[in-house]
Design goal:
11 strands, binds flavin mononucleotide, alpha+beta, 268 residues, two-stranded antiparallel ribbon, 6 helices, single chain
């Protein structure tokens, strides 16, 4: 057979495709464990970043050590706000449940400010202890739509359940330099000390109301975050996801169970 015949060209092209396909798929399979480990480590890092226990330059050993000594995942039922015992929170994938299409694992939302359409029934949150083992804060997963994408992140609240300790995003596809500035450390720094809830009296009963907003301007109050320049839509998305996740259909039942409003003066 001639070296430059059509058949020869075809054989070389097909062989090359087969060799490349085998190489790519073996790399994908062989690296899967490592990818899963890196994904887990990245989540742990972002939980610790939101909690203000990391700055982002730490080694994987330091992340794992801090995570193991300070963080306890809790599986909660979002509707009742109760901790679910007897199931391992570390093997739980709430977002998979939300996407499962199974009615006993998720609900379809009527009121959907975060633009997520469906919500899982059980969620994994993270209790953070101080170095003496006392509960110091809680880290809550949040997600919601910005301009181009769903943003996935964490927000940490002090154990008073209203003061923000920090926020971090681990996945989104907003534009770098615009909506992507949600990752900017100086934008995230202003969240520390902000308040999510105001306690308002409704029919004689003190109730938590989500008051945190993301807006443009100067002179921000404890309930206001300075927006992202040229990216108001992503900023509004961040505000809306907080409104949803800290409301009745989100973490409010758990928060009420953990720190009841009775006893907290209105306007506190
Ligand atoms: C290519 C391109 C990418 C953009 N990416 C974002 C983005 O990621 N987030 C966002 O809120 N706005 C983004 N915008 C701008 C929005 O269209 C809109 O103008 C902006 O959110 C309004 O914010 P402002 O009121 O602060 O100007 C983008 C615009 C362009 C042209």
């Amino acid at each position: 057979m001639q070296r430059d015949s059509i058949a020869n060209t075809f054989i070389v092209a097909v062989s090359l495709c087969v060799v490349c396909a085998v190489l790519v798929s073996s790399a994908a399979v062989g690296l899967r464990t490592r990818q899963d480990e890196n994904k887990k480590l990245d989540k742990q890092k972002n939980i610790l970043l939101a909690a203000g226990l990391m700055e982002g330059q730490e080694t994987s050993e330091e992340i794992e050590k801090t995570y193991d000594s300070r963080v306890k995942p809790l599986l909660i039922n979002l509707d009742s706000g109760e901790v679910v015992e007897g199931e391992d929170p570390t093997s739980f994938d709430p977002i998979k449940d939300a996407k499962s299409g199974e009615d006993d694992l998720r609900i379809v939302l009527d009121d959907d400010p975060a633009g997520i359409k469906v919500r899982e029934n059980k969620e994994v949150i993270y209790k953070i202890s101080d170095s003496s083992g006392n509960t110091q804060q809680y880290v809550f997963p949040i997600r919601g739509y910005g301009l181009w994408s769903t943003l996935y992140g964490y927000i940490a609240l002090d154990n008073d359940m209203e003061t923000v300790n920090g926020i971090s995003y681990y996945q989104h596809a907003e534009t770098p330099g615009l909506g992507g500035e949600v990752d900017n450390p100086s934008w995230k720094a202003q969240w520390k000390g902000k308040k999510i809830y105001d306690i308002k009296e409704s029919e004689g009963v003190p109730k938590r109301s989500v008051e945190l907003t993301v807006k443009k301007g100067n002179g921000m109050t404890d309930y206001e975050i300075d927006g992202l320049s040229g990216a108001s839509i992503t900023g509004k998305g961040v505000e809306n996801m907080i409104k949803f996740w800290f409301g009745e259909k989100g973490y409010l039942p758990f928060i009420q169970n953990t720190v009841p409003t009775s006893g907290i003066p209105t306007g506190a």
